[in-house]
Amino acid sequence: DTGVSQNPRHKITKRGQNVTFRCDPISEHNRLYWYRQTLGQGPEFLTYFQNEAQLEKSRLLSDRFSAERPKGSFSTLEIQRTEQGDSAMYLCASSLVEGQGYTQYFGPGTRLTVL
Amino acid sequence: EDQVTQSPEALRLQEGESSSLNCSYTVSGLRGLFWYRQDPGKGPEFLFTLYSAGEEKEKERLKATLTKKESFLHITAPKPEDSATYLCAVQAGSSTTGKLIFGQGTTLQVKP
After folding, report:
1. Is the dihedral of CA B31, B37, B42, B46 positive or negative?
2. Contact assessment for residue A28 and residue A2, using Cβ atoms and an 8 Å cutoff
3. What is the pLDDT of residues A57-70, one digit of tens each?
4. Do B101 and A45 touch (CB under 8 A)?
5. How many C-beta atoms lie closer than 10 Å to residue B48's C-beta?
6. C-alpha–C-alpha distance, residues A8 and A5, integer Å
7. Helix (H, G, I), strand (E, B) or coil at B89
8. What is the pLDDT of residue B7?
9. What residues of A are in contact with residue B44 (Cβ under 8 Å)?
């Protein structure tokens, strides 16, 4: 078990370009989450997958954002027509349903800088 | 509205000087309260899960406690390697997805 992995670790792009991030969860974890974190703040929830189904999206997830989890394995988060306000750390987490709580394990994140 | 507030925002300690970090929460039915450690430029690292008032968990120099309104992370005789941002998060019982609601974090600096 190598933990949650994310690629790329860093992405610098120009305003208006599209970017795509990938997340590989811990194997056998059926729940996958995306969060966004800006400097000095805690992570904020973006979207959630149970297996391949996207079951919740935050109002933070504008129409320019889309996420997929084909076959319930890895997930991708795409941002179209990036804006400077999209600059942030994008975090992926995975978990299993377990009893009362659902402990989430985070990946190292993808740092996005939009110029 | 579910909300988490952490205090202080920043804390500087001398090595060996024990202290506590506070996490106050308002949530519609607590499913779980989570503590994470985050080093600069990295993802949050899981520390503890607490489920009900009165519960306590320990790991090395860290001890987490939970009441009906807040949680404390006690750091005993800290070392410089304990320097990091500590994040508190809650899962609401009303949520079917288990999404986490985070506080803004407490940045701890331990000086040798």
Report:
1. negative
2. no
3. 999 889 999 999 99
4. yes
5. 23
6. 9
7. strand
8. 97
9. 43, 91, 106
